[in-house]
Known about the structure:
This protein is an alpha/beta fold.
Amino acid sequence: MSHPKTNRPGSVFLLLLLILGFFLTTWVHASKERTKLGNEIFIQTLCPQLDQKKLGLVCNHTSVLHDGKSLIEALLEIGVHVEAVFAPEHGFQGELEAGAEIQDSLLEEIKIFSLYGKNKKPTQEQARSIDAFVYDIQDVGTRFYTYITTLKHVMEAAADFGKAVYVLDRPNPAGGHIVEGPLLRSAYESFIGATPIPVRYGLTVGELALMMKGEGWVPPQVELHVVRMMNWSRRYFWKETGLPWIPTSPNIPLSETAIIYPGTGLLGALTVNQGLGTMNPFLQFGAPWFDSKAIIQILGGGARYGAELEPLIYTPKSLSGKTLHPPYENIECQGINVRIHEKDKFYSLHFTLALIKAIRETHPGKIRLHRESLNRMFGNDLLERYIKDTLSYEDLLTEMEKDEKAFLQMRQKYLLYD
């Protein structure tokens, strides 16, 4: 019996296409330019304008250029006068746990003033010898992360004392496209929420600074300069920037942590351990009473959110510099681990609200509110009302959607990137 002849030219052609595709993909990836941070542009183009000026740097351990050199070192090397440093929550080195009071200190002969201790805003005395503030801190794109409140306070102080503010722009690791959550209501303003923006606001820090000024959330007379990035897109997450990730604080160790944090960051106000006391905070969570498999089943395994949910058992421990007393310390918890596979589909706050709904269905009466903390983080009492059965889940989502649409429209004139 004769065998059919193999179509060898077609096979060779297909092989060539595959090889060409591989090299084309490799070339495109290799040729894609990394994102250039605002601090790099500042060093290259604006520093000569600040010759003989005395700068107050609002910075921390994340204030480095793409090559790992600190902004302070880079400025001193080219002869710029750094008069003082102002450090936010977690300290200049970013090593102290959330809520720990920061003391003033020295970096060789440069004074480091704490903005998370006795003072949360630069004082007139501290600003007296400064010509301009320079803000260069990586944040995570969540309203209740305090670095952006520090930015607001610095802009207020600059307006009060007649100083300029330079904001060196940086990527939003939670992306610039997705917006989630209700707008902060004035009755719930605090240091963990100082501007009427959604929980996940989808702006760079430079865009947010422009919005603060444009909407009158800081004095309009503040002299604001935003130093834009190059090669950044609204749909980028951290991997697309080509930059190394530096943990922004002890419990945000991964860029993926910043994506889920706007949602699971709320769980600590609901007697659920949000992964604190582990090496994977916010990407895992649980409680001794969790039925992990039942909750995962209700959430469809996470696929509808572009994620994969896995059951796990863990015991939160005291971790120096991260969390000294996590919820359920030294108590075994039944938990869930989240693997985010499609970042552009993972709406962290909506996922967490669905999670809370699933917990209520599987464990009626188990959720206990830390009311003040929850409402300050969420920005109003809508989530509290849902948990107390005075607002339906559907109405909760509807109210959020109204605020999200309003904010998307409001932010348009402040966007610096496509």
